[in-house]
Amino acid sequence: MAETSKQVNGDDAQDLHSLLSSPARDFLVRNDGEQVKVDSLLGKKIGLYFSAAWCGPCQRFTPQLVEVYNELSSKVGFEIVFVSGDEDEESFGDYFSKMPWLAVPFTDSETRDRLDELFKVRGIPNLVMVDDHGKLVNENGVGVIRSYGADAYPFTPEKMKEIKEDEDRARREQTLRSVLVTPSRDFVISPDGNKVPVSELEGKTIGLLFSVASYRKCTELTPKLVEFYTKLKENKEDFEIVLISLEDDEESFNQDFKTKPWLALPFNDKSGSKLARHFMLSTLPTLVILGPDGKTRHSNVAEAIDDYGVLAYPFTPEKFQELKELEKAKVEAQTLESLLVSGDLNYVLGKDGAKVLVSDLVGKTILMYFSAHWCPPCRAFTPKLVEVYKQIKERNEAFELIFISSDRDQESFDEYYSQMPWLALPFGDPRKASLAKTFKVGGIPMLAALGPTGQTVTKEARDLVVAHGADAYPFTEERLKEIEAKYDEIAKDWPKKVKHVLHEEHELELTRVQVYTCDKCEEEGTIWSYHCDECDFDLHAKCALNEDTKENGDEAVKVGGDESKDGWVCEGNVCTKA
pLDDT, tens digit, for every residue of 117-129? Predict the structure, then answer.
């Protein structure tokens, strides 16, 4: 905010009139065509709303802003001025018709462009708060409205500091009532619509479930959470879950909630967003645990329930230490067969469709490749992996790779697998879920390496393949140290800095960069780059040290032809002294 504030509030700052008017216009407009003098805004706090009809996030934010505006405009001196980013007047008019506030006329593009530049608008929706003198008060109006709504008025730094202090105090003094009770509500609801007093929950362990029913990860957790909840009830534990739904649609909320065994805040309860801030919500689903005293015992146990079910209860530090020891023992006992054998499923598929027994793979280094045809990064990585796989197999038969598909149908699986020379789990194989859980697959492509004992060597094998290719085999820490030493040895006599005719603005510094594109030959490079961090400029060593001569202080670093300064010889991506 400091840079924008300095420009807007500096010695040459404009007053509100000069900010919003033009030589030919001293008024703003309403959506019915009424003209409103700019000077009538004196004494009010103003929100400049940069938005456009074509912008999806704007369309979603505008109704929330309308609600805040309607709450404030009749009580305090608050006005909003729409600064349109629309490309035609019809779109402007249709969008503006949904807004109860003022606007800079669409025809005054000069003023709209000037405001864009003055407030450095680089994305929309953008809401800038100014006072009646045109001074910047808050440039993060969208975030403030989303988080605090009308409660943030008058949006000043002092008010924001007060809100933060109140939030910190609420966390320190937290009780179950302070979390779940509001001035207008002292109950939660059951799936049949009955009101359950919050007082009946006091003294229990409470799980606050932040969720959106349509979100895949929430849907995946739900069956396990229902099973967990049901078992605790059968064991007569003093435990309850309260759903804090973040759904936008009431029908979706009702359809989902009526099938659940737990309680909930009423739909669209305003305390929902406040609680999301209070518990610093960062992911969905989140299950916050409150102890019998109403204090937060754990910020999110969703993953623990997914992994351990009722074994994780009651979510105390001692319980998590116990689970940590169990997990350590499980990792130490891991074998290829413990990962890949489940009942009668004791095989993977070969390229000819034949079943390859897992027992035949024991003792080999194995790569587990989580991928899918619909995933563009996967399709881009697979050809590189095929090349690396073939190179490793030529050198060492005690190596194999298993494709674990996230494709959506058999046809897609078959088409994608036809491009691969290795083994695979059958499409739709139930072992995929447990493998994804074991390796904590959060995104694809993902490549994990197992050593000959079946224990995990690394879950970051994809990065190693990209950076080092087949040289990364067998993907162990020891091998990585050898590679690091080799690259350090290669570069030990290279100049630390060079100047180059393609980048005369700054010196290029020898830098470790895992993967980059050379700005001269436009080919991919790895490990060493002559790099300018300020300009994000990279050159291969061969391109930096083999080009036209460029003075560098008292030295001339010759970079051109096959000969180079001091007898440098460059082959591929490596330059050495002759």
Answer: 999 998 899 999 9
* Stretch (H or E) spanning 83: strand 78-84
Number of H helices and number of E strands within the chain?
Answer: 20, 29
Cβ pair 134, 9 in contact under 8 A? no
d(CA 172, CA 497): 53
Sheet holding 45-51, edge to edge: 35-37, 27-29, 102-103, 78-84, 45-51, 126-130, 136-138
Q: Which residue has the higher pLDDT, 560 or 528?
A: 528
Could you tell me whether strands 446-450 and 456-458 are parallel, antiparallel, or unpaired per DSSP bridges? antiparallel
The CA-atom distances, in angstroms, between 316 and each of 310, 521, 529 are: 13, 57, 49
CA-based nearest residue to 368, from 442, 444, 449, 434 = 449
Task: Give which of 25, 82, 97, 73 is closest to 51, Cα–Cα.
Answer: 82
Distances (CA, A) of 266 to 26, 229, 254, 342: 47, 20, 10, 43
Average pLDDT, the chain: 89
Give alpha helix (H) positions in 418-550.
Answer: 431-438, 461-468, 477-491, 541-545
DSSP state at residue 423: E
Predicted confidence (pLDDT) at residue 247 exceeds the cutoff of 70: yes
Contact 84, 127 (CB under 8 A): no
How many other C-beta atoms can be found within 10 angstroms of the C-beta atom of residue 225?
Answer: 23
Check: CB of residue 144 under 8 Å from CB of residue 160.
yes
Of the candidates 505, 511, 515, the residue with the CA atom closest to the CA atom of residue 535: 505
Give the alpha-carbon dihedral of 423, 429, 434, 440, to 10 degrees.
60
* Structure letter (DSSP) for residue 430: T
Which of 394, 368, 527 has the alpha carbon at shortest distance from 470? 394
Average pLDDT over residues 433-447: 91
How confident is the model over 352-407, as pLDDT tens digits?
889 999 999 999 999 999 999 999 999 999 999 999 999 999 998 899 999 999 99
Identify the band that residue 546 occupies on the pLDDT scale cut at 50, 70 and 90.
confident
CB of 295 closer than 8 Å to CB of 302? no
CA distance 471 to 488: 15
What's the pLDDT score for residue 74?
85
Closest Cα to residue 213, out of 167, 273, 259, 148? 259
Contacts of 30 (CB under 8 A, 6+ apart): 36, 101, 102, 103
Q: Is the pLDDT of residue 545 over 60?
A: yes
Question: Is residue 487 a contact partner of residue 507, using CB atoms and an 8 Å limit?
Answer: no
Model confidence pLDDT, tens digit, residues 406-425: 999 999 999 999 999 999 99
